[in-house]
Each structure stands twice: as C-alpha cells, then as structure tokens.
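hey so u asked for the seq, here:
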Amino acid sequence: MSQTKPILIGHRGARGLAPENTLLALDAGIAAGCPWLEFDVQLHPSGQLFLLHDLTLERTTSGRGLASACDWHRLHALDAGQGQHVPTLDEALDLIDQRARVNIELKTWDGTAAAVAECLRTRLAEGCSPKQFIVSSFHLPELYEFKQLLPEVPVAVLLCGVPLDWAACTSELQAVALNLSAEFVDARLLADARARGLKVNVYTVNDAAEYARLAALGVDGVFTDVPDRLAAL
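ran it, structure tokens below
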C-alpha cells in the first residue's frame, strides 16, 4: 500500500476554478500545482481535434446541438465561459508546454485515436518525452487502436464499474493505469490492478474525507475539480 498522498490530476483542467476544458482551466490547474492535467478530446468532421466533454454544446458553450454538426470555425469561436473559446488539442498542448503532464481522454471514436496519435507523434518528433502523456478512454477498441499506432505513449483504461474479470482488460491494451470511478473502488479490483503492476487513479474527488479514505486505500492519484482545496490539506 502506498504511504504517500495520491497525486492531484486536474479534472478537465481544473473545472472548479475555471470553465472546463478551456485554456483558462488548464492554466488554473497548473497554478494550483497539479503535476498532471486531464482533458477531453473529440474529433470534428473537418479533421480538427478539440477539447469538449459532451457530444452536445449546450451545457458548456454558447452553442446548441451536436458539436459534430457545427461548422468548425463557428465551433472554435463559441464562448466556453468567461470569454474562453473551444480550444484545439494543439492550443492546449502549446499552453501546457512542459509545465505539467497530460492525460488525454478520447471522447469520440471512428478516427479520434488515429488523429491524436498523429498529433502526439509530431510532439515526440519535436522532443517531447512519451512519459509526458497518457491517453485514456472508456471506448476500449479506440484505445487499442491508439496503442497500435503509437505504442511508446502509455495508455490508461477508464472504468465506471467492476468487470467480471476485474482489471484483465488492461493486459491486452498494455495499459499502465486504471482510471476508476470513485463509486466503484472495490478492494478486490484494486488488488487485481496492483498484481498487474498498474497505477490506480480515481475520479472525481473533491471532498477532503473521500481523499483521505482513498489515500488510506493506497490509490496513486485522484482526478479533482478543485486541486487548490485538496492541495491545502
């Protein structure tokens, strides 16, 4: 069991401090001291990769309808809160630079893995370390495709539940981590993940008591909207 505090992973940048999945939220997560930042990436029919959690626009932007049905230039210019626009993956990575490591969640499929792999391949050619990145998804076939295309970049399996075969799905994907919903932190699943040499990160943790409970269980990291609050513990 880990004897150290779980690391803080800024969730959607730091969505408790700034509008989620925006450049402002990424800056806020860095300012709060997060060694890792997580954000969601989708592929637009135009070929552009952009940061957005929902498949629809209403909750987090000034737009309406499906993001995939919106003209790219209009989508990119939408107000995502506090005057922020919907950023591209390249804009996010340029902003972060070497100031934090990055967990990219693939939110869409049918080409998202290939597009993200191509983007990161360019970054690696420019001198970035593969260890600066981790790519995760609930859509395991898409995650498998990414791993085939860019095997040097680590991947993490996202779970919102407890599979019958525990953490076995991570083996075929050669995953290095299991990113698990806080609702399903089962001791047997944790033990199986440990036996497979996996890191275990839990989402989404904003409460001090829950953070302490997870630390006692030995999880490696927590995704949090409010890294400033947990960092102050």
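The two ends are 20 Å apart (CA to CA). The longest strand covers residues 36-43.
lmk if thats what u needed
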